## 1
Amino acid sequence: MSAGTVERPESSTDRRRRALAARPRTVALSAIGLLVLLSLVRVISGAEDITSSGTTSAALRLAVPIGLAGLGGLWAERAGIVNIGLEGMLILGTWFGAWAAFFYGPWIGVMAAVAAGALGGLLHALATVTFGVDHVVSGVAINLLGGGIARYLSSIAYGDGQVPGAGQTQSPNTQPLPQVSLPVLSDGPDLLGRLEDQGWFLLSDLAGILKGLTADVSVLTLLGVLLVPLTFFILWRTAFGLRLRSVGENPVAADSLGVAVYRMKYAAVVISGALAGLGGASLVIGSIYREGQTGGRGFIGLAAVIFGNWRPGGLAAGAALFGYADAIQLRAGGAVRGLLLFVALLLVVVAIRQALRRRIGLAIAAVLIGAAFALWYLAVDTVPSQLVGFTPHLVTLLVLAVASQRLRPPAADGIPYRRGQQT
Amino acid sequence: MSLLTPERAEPVPPTPSTGRSGPRIDGRRLLLAVVAPLLAAVVALAVASIALLISGSNPLTVYARMLSEGTTLRSLLITVNNAVPLYLSGLAVAIGFRMGLFNIGVEGQYTLAALLAAAAGAAVSLPLFLHIPFIILVACTVGAGWAGVAAVLKTTRGVSEVISTIMLNVIAGGLAAYLLATQFQERVEGSNNTRTAPLDETARFPILDPGLRMLGIEPPQGTRLGGFVVVAVVVGIGYWLLVSRSRFGFELRATGLSPSAAVASGVDAKRMTIAAMLLSGALAGLVGLPQLLGTSFAYGLDFTAGLGFTGIGVALLGRGSPVGIGLAALLFAFLERSSATLQRIDVPTEIYVIMQGAIVLSVVVAYEAVRRIGVAQAERAVRRATDPGTAA
């Protein structure tokens, strides 16, 4: 792929791809910009929750299952298998994780969740790789099956009222895993917490966010976060990862070079399911299994993959965004109202950028939409919770509508591969 | 975005170009038609039996009970009633499949359609012959409009309809909850349920019990045959005429089988995508109506959810033919109805969900496996016929 591009002059797709590949400086600048905007909004609107450690900590906790499902999606799609069944594997992870955690302790619960998810992945691999079933069809069927298995087993395990605190649709409470905090800064003297309480512009916001990210973090959350760089390392810095990705880009070529295409695809999809299962565990360990608790997080994870342009870093950013949207809606409606102002300000920034690039039409559109959000902000006291619930989904749609033509999925993504046949 | 390769969206049995015609292909088709469902049934039964063994019950006892419970007149009537929305949902999904479109958004489309149709229907008073058509029109328009969002995103921005309809489902659910709570709510005395104002008498769909009595069947106490089954049959015939007997249907299927070939022969792919999606959404709009016009007469928090997702299973099982989808809907409804009383012999009712999932998965796998065997045989036949070395 790269050898060819060196020779010929840079094409527009190459340029676009290069612009999309987030460089460290751009990322840092955007992060600082976002922080300034957020603290500005907090000071103006008085919605303290926007950058409080409570919100950030909840955002991190909620981002982890989405991110793990997303990583699952990334592994599968990098090997060319679309995994719509992530939701079903997530459900399997939650059920088996909660069940095993209650009876045998939280670590066994985590392992059971991973195993259950991996089994779901194995089923998907069997259907799509060995039998060549359409990926979306198989995924939809696995979602049906995953939900059905969880309901059925709940009924068997808890339906008779033998287990205290459990019922037809929920498991008993499970033991939490240990939590870690950063010493001194967010624990003990709690320097960050004190700084946060001062309410200073920017400094307290930064402290709140940092504290939320470092205080009382579950080991499982930490594991989930670490899996992002680990995934990057394995997929982009090892021979195994190169082979796996080659299968998703051009399986025929990979096969001719001696890569075991079927085996790679199996490995990717089983790992994909295991990651989704781990995501399920992160929802239930220290809490309970409830029917319908995954709430489409598998699909949101898939959206995070697309949002992140099939890259781990972008995926993590997407998961963080969705986790934050999830967390903010759990807070009082005032915080969401503050976000309306945030969107308005953000659109003003976008408008200025587009105006500098002489794209006047886009700039005017951004200003108009921004003004609409500002008006909405001024007109209401709170935003109804029903509308806030689908913020991540709306954001996903908008991102796809704006950026989907600049995204680059693996070239052979979703195409059934049969050795020795062209299609 | 290659989330889905359109030409493979629905594993269509191929007509292999063996160079020969007639009986050979028919024989293979027959094989496909008989072996695949049998294989699938065996696998699905095996999975269900394992699940039953886990719960500590004898699968044979359970199946026997399901058969005897499910075939009482009362159960059969309920099965037919429950199959109607599943059938409509399956057709809505299938029309998209026909051209390689995955409308996973039937769920959101029918939820929003049922709510707005209930609200609109309650807001007006019309004579009998206008009220029901009005409600149906509103429901179809809303369903088509919501599906249209995904269609426009796909044709103008290249957004995969799989992802966009999944997102639109959640947004529709939130919107419906919001609208119900703030705009259309009517408090019910002594109940936690919030629902729209009930529909007038003129908007209640006639029931078919008199017709049953004419046939000499006396419906049991408290059971009736909803009139919407007639609508379902009419829609099924319409679907067949449209897909199999019209130019539009031909172009639809052509696009599904090979988009590039269709475009090369003058089919406007974007127009077809929008048309198929709008049709699918309009059909999806009907899914909530058997309940709205037949039993509940209002949209409330307790309105049946999940029909859109089950419809995907029904469509996959029915393999695109209106009769197949009908049988699949009846099978799904039968499984649900006949397992309703299993609780009494200590078997979880939810076994039917596992059965449905297992059937769908094993059917798609079985058809693909048998198709491949067919293709391999055809290739071998071609090799035998064309290779001078072996042709003796």
## 2
Amino acid sequence: MKTLLSLVIKDFKRDLKRPWSILLFATLPVLMTGLIALVFGRGGNRSGPVPTIHVAVLDQDKDLVPRMLSYILAQGDIAEKLQMHPVENRDQGLRLLEKRKASALVVLPEKMTERLLKGQASAIELYENPAEQYLPKVVRHGVSMLAVGLSGAADVLQGPAQGTQDSVEADDSRTRAALAQASWQFLQELRHSLIEFETVSPAEYQLQVTHEP
Amino acid sequence: MRDVYVFMFPGIMYFWVYFIGQGPMLEILTERETHTLQRMLASPVSLSEFLLSKMVRCFLLCAATQLLLLFASGVLFGISWGDPWLLVPAVLACALSVTGLLAFIYATARTKEQAYSLSHVVVIVCALVGGSFFPFHNMPAFLQAIGRFSPNRWGVLVIQTVAWSQPRRYLVKPMFFLCALGLFGSATAFFVFCRRLAKGAGL
């Protein structure tokens, strides 16, 4: 045992005299992990884990629904993560895709609001940027959800909304004032979410992960 | 960001520790090939003491390097590696497995060059299928099935389990595999080395 110990100590003393190969191999994991984390972690928390999505929007409707949408999308966290770029025509939008300044181009068709209120179908066009992999898919899912949401809302609100539209077309000052008040209340209610979520911290639960070999 | 480090670092560390542990094992074959082993055995040092000293040094070197790296990564990247009382046995089990695998490879190889090449192949394949370079769960199912037999996978699991403060029962199986590999590899290598070196040294 004593001989064994003295042999180990002797070898360690020799390692201490020439530690460079050990030090080199020991620094490599730190360097590699640092580099990989910088590449995949986007250099710390500079831009956060979720990138900003740039979407070009061609609004051919120029009516109530696009205005409401732009109002909603300009609120809170969504405004930080979703950057809308209004464009005048389709070519301008496609140029933004070519220059990789937008992940997708969304075209809201003419008379979309009117057709929606009449219960008629419309088609929102989506041009995905082929140079990007994930962000256009996020936009696609967002637009699909928007289409479903608008269809549902149109079913529920078709009657009152048509009345509102008629009032607008009647164009007298009393109904316009009432309409303005109703719109304001409606927008205030939109800002108040019916469903909220709370994040539960890991300290409050025990994670049941099965990763055993 | 911390998750990226906890995902990446244990695998990369386990992989590079193999190269540090190779030094003492390489010395056994160098001493044999340069005939300095006979001179050493003429002194009061026995063959088993010589072999055990190299294995113990390999084990201590790997354990010390891993502890140092975990400490350094904690300071540099702000990673918390969890309970130190669990981390130390996890690191010791990893070091034991590295020692066992390397000792087995070097004991079965005929020459220094053969051992060096063979150990590189084994270490790199184990690292690739064991998730040392990328998240294990992102690999295809058949590679995951193979990777479950890789010591790198068990090494990564024990360190990550401690770092994520997961239930201790998750430590049992990978720790058992690491220790079993270490003890089996070291014991087999010891007997194979004893037989071959004794024959070569004319004992």
## 3
Amino acid sequence: MEAPVALTVGIVFGAGVYLVLQRNLLRFVFGLILISGAVNVSIFVAGRLTRGASPFVPEGAVAPPAGSANALPQALILTAIVIGFGLTVFAIVLLLRTYERLGTVRTDELPERLDDPRPVDRNGDAPAGAPRPRPMPQGGTVPRTGPSGTDARDDGEGAP
Amino acid sequence: MLSAAVLIGFAVAALAPLATPALGARAGWVWALLPAGLATWFAAQIPQVRAGAPLEQAVPWLPSLGIELAFRLDGLSLVFALMITIIGTAVVIYAGGYLRGDRQLPRFYLLLLAFMAAMLGVVVADDLISLFVFWELTSLTSYFLIGYKHDKEESRAGALQGLLITGSGGLAMLAGFLLLGADVGTFRISAMLADPAVVQASPVYLPALLLIALGAFTKSAQFPFHVWLPNAMAAPTPVSSYLHSATMVKAGVYLLARLAPAMGGTAVWFWLLTGVGTATLLAAATLALLQRDAKRLLAYSTLIALGALVVMVGVGGPLGAEAMLAFMVAHALYKAPLFMVAGNLDHEAGSRDVTVLSGLGRAMPISWAVALVAAISAAGLPPMLGFVGKELAYETLLPHPWALAALVAASAVMVPIVVLVAWRPFAGREPRAPKAAHEAPVSMWIGPAVLATLGLGFGLAPDVLAQALLVPAAAGLVGAPVDFYLKLWHGVNAALLLSIATILLGAFLVLVWRPLHDALRTRFADVRVGPAGIYDALVLRGIPTVAKGLTKRVQSDDLQHHLLTITGFTVGLLALTAVVRGGPTLALPTVDGALHEFLVLALIVVGALGTASAHSRLRAITSLGVVGFGIALLFVMFSAPDLAVTQFLVETLTVIVLALVLTRLPSALLRDGEARGRSRLALVIAATAGAAFSALLLAVTQTPFDRRLSDFFDAASYPDALGSNVVNVILVDFRAIDTLGEIFVLAVAATGAYALLRRLGPRPEPEIAYAAPRGSADPAGDGEPSDAGTPGGRAADDGGAGS
């Protein structure tokens, strides 16, 4: 059964690499998640697959029965899963922060935004007058008025 | 003792910065004791060296590589060593006066004395690698000394140019040394000289010769590498007179002379050296006519001398050796004083422009006298040593009329040069100078006076010099004992007639100098081709441009470009290895899975591909979740319950965090595209990477499995750690420190995430949403006017858009 799993791991890894190579940092994070999953499984496969024989020492014995699953890669993967989770969460939060601060998650737009940061306000939107981070294809035909309350009030006072 | 003589210079140099401030105005005199003492010691070795018993000393350095710190003092080395120490004495004393009160004088003495030690190392080294190390040390000290006035752009540019040109030549030379040493089996110079046939029969003879000659030519400022020497005149005058006329620039000549018995005598050798030397002669003679700065004039006259020396080494033979050595000693004895007098002009009269200064003879009589004595030698007039050297050079070149013609022409140019430097600024009644001139202090004329007098003395009695130094030195150059005697007057012969012709031509050049100079300056004013232009274009502009472009390409500030390069390169390398070396041999795998197992794998594949192609947030999260839970199922099926539990937990948390965060981001965030070419490239790279990963993993699973480590944990976990869950025992017992580290990593990640999140502030309350058009709240908070008021509706919207 190792061979089909190895092929699957390759596909997941390839999908992860593809995502990591995208300019959209959200996809980048998705790629990271896929790659860390693929790597975990690859360690698992490299330690060989065993069905229905978890590495437990039965009552009264001093060692797991012969033919039990390989415990060592499992221990390694357990660490890897948790660390991978830490990395993923940190990356996601960083991504969120980047967006709130710079209004984009595309790496090709980051340098210019870094030169001229336009912090979006707290509801995660660009302030009035600032160009939108990306042209957003909108499903509806809603007219775009000032997106925030402040803006709307300003409009009201400015045009009596 | 020999190694001590070389290395003591470095020790004293290290003291210089500490002691110089305390010595005050006497610093020059005190530090001159070192070169003076060394000169005395070297002079005391003359009898032994004359007797044909060179001093030798070898200290093992890198025995495993056959490299020794080997020193050998024979006749040739002795001439150079005496030149270095005697002129060094004069220069150190001179510098004390010239740079008196200079804030950086301690540093100056450090560099100057270190240079002297390194230069001594070059000329007495008997091991090619040791020689290279000392050689590079002279380049480095020269760099710092040219750039001494580092607040001046001109100094920095000159220093860098000198370093780049001599440094790259030095690297070529090192390559040549390594080629040669590896082929003949030794780095000992004396061993190579003892067996020239081996060197010349070596298959690497030609490349080694060319590379070593490159080092020598750059160091000795031969055409077309001569450009750095005139620009090195930005250095203080003591440096110019020492490094850039008397000693360092002769290192290349020394190297060629040193290797002449082993490498010389071939047609390549002859044509390479005489050709380059002649080109240097002609280029320097022409360019000298363009100069009006005393130091630059002297720099071009140094180039003329260096060209002549290289030609004579190329011609070789007893006569060539004799001529080369006499010419070189004469040059050192007249050029150093001339430089120092030019420095006196600059120092006491405020200018080195020979068209500005005149009539200073009354104010500076000693300097003038010194300048005149040196100038007569430089012009090659009797009864000076310069005359002897030039006569011998003419005699040597008689069989090669083209080289002779070049030397005669270049020697004629020496006449206007010395008239401009030693006559024009001093002659005349009315003193004309930027400041009121007066004689230089004793420290600034005693050295040049002694050197110029030596030139006169050796001119009157040349055979004293010849028997003591030149005959043993010529033996080193020829590779066999030679015998000759020198005299001032050879009677009327071809060489004398040529000398008379030279003087006449020189006198004519003096008469027409002004119009010729002006015409040439106008003609060459805007010329930017030639070696200097090539240096500017290639080194100053070309290399930085290429480096910048290359760096921008491979080290751009674009993360994805970076990743694309790295992954693409790695994958390319893998593919190349697989093609060249052959990939892993894979047996046809046996497939023994059950249906549900394949279903789980299919689920994972669908999830992965779904994530990669997702254009909506919901689809991406769902697909990621499918992959994660699929992996957890895999762990369940293959006996890893702990992993499965952890994976389920982590996956659930990941999905929750993602969902929470994505609601803060605009829904259209994933609807952007990539440029098509890039996207395709990424696809190719990703597919290759995936395939390579699979192949690697398949290969791993098909190698025999070594269970030793796992067996140890199985056997030890209950008896040693009293735990029946082997995985847990490994984590908390055998690898407890690892697990502690893991906890730290998590804590750091959590702290970082918290710090980032805290600055975001609270989620906006729905009350501000009254600005949204349909009055519907926007709970997602991404500021988009949404079609549906509920998160569920939004999710549906996303799902629809993504498909």
## 4
Amino acid sequence: MFSPELKKGSSEMLLLSLLESRPRHGYELGKLIEARSGGRLTFALPTLYPTLLRLENRGWIKGRWVEKAGERERCFYRLTRDGRRVLAEQRKTWREYVDAVNDVMGLDAKGISRA
Amino acid sequence: MRDWHAFVRERLSLPDLIAEREARIVREIAVQLEDFYREARAAGRSDADADAHARQQIVDWDRLAKDLRLADAVHLRPALDRAIDLHTAARGGQPGVRTMALHMMRDARYAVRQLTRTPAFTLVVLLTIALGIGATTAIFSVVNGVLLRPLPYPEPDSLVLVNEVVPQYGSFSVAPANFLDWRQQNTVFERIAAFNSDRAAYIHKDQPEMLVGATVSWDLFDLLRIAPAIGRTFRAEEDAPGKNAVVIISHGLWERRFGGDPAVLGQTVNLNAAPATNIGVMPRGFQFPSDGEYWRPIALNPANATRGGHFLGVVARRKAGGTLDQAQAEMKTIAERLAVQYPANSANESAEVVSLQDRVVGGVRPALLTLLAAVGVVVLIACANVANLLLVRASVREREIAIRMSLGADRRRLIAQMLAESLVLALAGGALGIFFAYLAIPAVKSLGGGSIPRVGNIGIDLRVLAFAAVVSIGTGVLFGLVPAWQASRTGVGAALKEGGRSATASGGRWVRSTLLVAEVAMSIVLLVGAGLLLRSFVKLTNVDPGFRPERVLAFRVALPNASYPEEHQRVAFFDRLLEGLQRIPGVAAAGMIQSLPIRNDYVLSFAIQGRPAPQPGSEPSANHRVISPDYFKALGIRLVRGRTFTNRDVEKSPMVAVIDEAFAARHFPGEDPIGRGLDIGNGSDGFYEIVGIVGSVNYGGLDRAPNPTMYVPYKQDVFSTMWMMVGTGGDPAQLTNPARQALLEVDRRLPASGMTTLATVVDDSIAQRRFSMLLLSGFALLALFLAAVGLYGVVGYSVSQRTQEIGVRMAIGAQRRDVLRMVIGGGMKLSVLGLAIGLMVAVLLAKLITTTTMLFGVEPIDPMSYAATAGLLAMVSLLACYLPARRAMQVDPVIAMRQE
């Protein structure tokens, strides 16, 4: 549906924003992206998991093994203070980028042609 | 459901990541795959279907591994580890040299990591090693510079000095006639040359300066194999009276006075008002016989060379292939043949050949080697200390080691790893030690200045660095082996048992105690040695030299023959100079003497009027001193009987002499010397009548009994070089400028040289002893300090191990006093044992070195020194035990027992 390059550029941002509200585990993150995009965006495990590791190694998220009642032990990732800052920046940059692209392409904020 | 963990494990391998990381990744991926499976099942799919669905999530495992390695690159295993695996795999599991080297590097890295985790421990160990190695390196740099470095002449081993051996004095300077005969008759030397020290007044821009130089045989430079920097050396024909108006100058003089201008060649230089043509400049740093600045041909005259006057030094180069013994044998034969041939002057004389290096440094060798041995003991003590610290550390790490062994770690690898740790410590400590030595060397040099020859050679060179490296590695192995061996013996079971008394705690206690006893014993030996030197030194400084050196300024005035050829001119000059000096405000008495007390020597044979003439060669001899009347007053030498000299004792008046008490006791026992006559020298000028007796003076040095001395008034036997002795009530150094002024007023062209105070002269004469004493004391204190630290460590550790036991004891009624006694008693037992062993070793050593010249007025087995040492060590030990004992007293029984 979307090219891998396009997806790859945005995967980090997507993961960070999904972790903004609360900690989640890896499987949940993949499912959530699929569900929220109405199935238009899917990240397979081989793409998603290395990205998680990378984010963790940058100190933007932090994984912790947690055992919840009635569930198996899973690694839950939460956003760190640094991660929160980075997410805010990425949001801003994304918005500016989208606005600029829209302006060039003659679309309004909703992406509808102004022609 | 399949075992997803095993599924992932089989397919995903991340050997480059650290193990924990790899495990976590495998686990997390397995959990996620299981989630896929479970959800598919929950959605109602069949087991096989769900399983396939989950498996489809990852198709390209290799690609995933690559992505993960990239994503997790911060958790790569260390490159060394990966390289070792690579090499081992490549060699089919067989370890090779390369693998071993890599292992060593890995061990070293591991060691560094372990050591940085315990900075306090590491710092203490490093400082201990650095102190030991620093002290050793500093002393070795002295030994290296002074004893080991070859003399600065090519092939220095074949250079020798040849001395005469005369019956009364032993080794002695050479008579010119004998030298000339030696030169003709010997077959063992390639060349043989004579030299004599020389001084000359040199005037440059109206500033008179006294230069020190030498007169030498023409071929001395060829003999030494040193070519001039510019110009040429002497020719054979210039080494003859009347043809010797040529001079070679030192590089230093050339730069200082001629600005390094090559045009100096051919210029005329006036030395003692006699012109000489400058024909050469020696290379920078060239010295012979000592730090002279010019050389002139000695120009001995074979026609009238004396055989009775001994004043030459003789240096020779042995022929290639000849030995020192052969040279010695032949020179002895020649000299003894000459002695038979010329009985009037040379009866019973012989000759000896000594290597030049021995002669230059032989005097300090025993002291330096003693210091090196002492500092070696300090290193051993440091080693024992560090070994003890490592043992304590090993017992703390016992569980870690036991776990690693139970996990299959090879015992050899464990020992290698612990050794790596001690080597890392040793090398780092060694490097720090070299730095300490570098800081200490200037102090050692200034301490040894004037008493140690070749001080300028002392420094850190490659040999010193190699020495420090070898000592460091040696100590590393030494202090590392015991703990490594001890730790590797640890039984896996024993150490793993919770709270179990460990193997190293009991076995190690024995090793630690032994090391400690050895440490205390070694420091006792050093302390006793230092104590003996200290007592010697104190006794020496308390020696009454027979004169009062504290308030006397001394300087030398040499009258050139050219301007003062006649005796009466010299007498007149000195009269005026003495008057001028006497007029300086603050001067109590101005006297003079021809040889500087302590430093210079002048001995003549004599005959006593009315006694049968002795055999030639067995005449009695005594110190001969030519003085001005106020000399005794200036130096505070007391008159015992009769009178001293007056200004009425002149050339034309009856010849008179004053003798000292030593002379009277030796030559006139039970007789009255006053009024007797002395024939001094090989005299034809008649007898000197003894008119007085003065107190004896230690002219030969504080450590020598006063030699018999005879004094004559300068007006009856005037010398051209005299030492002025200016006594004052205040600080003699203040008189320096007024004294120079007084000299200038008498003769503007004459320099005052060797300006010093007599106190300095006396001080310098014991400088070598002070050097040895201070350094040895320093090492002994260092040893004591290290031993105390060791004792503190061992007792402290045992207290920490026995906290529970102490708690129990206190709970069942033991008083704090009892605990104190128990802890201190335990430590002191070791200390006293070491003390006893050390004292025994010291006594044994003292018996071996009874002939040592380093002691003065103290027996090697000196009860005072031994008792003081033992007392000092006991006190320090007590303190070292008390500190941990105080901690033990504060043990709260309840808390201690709760740990059970």
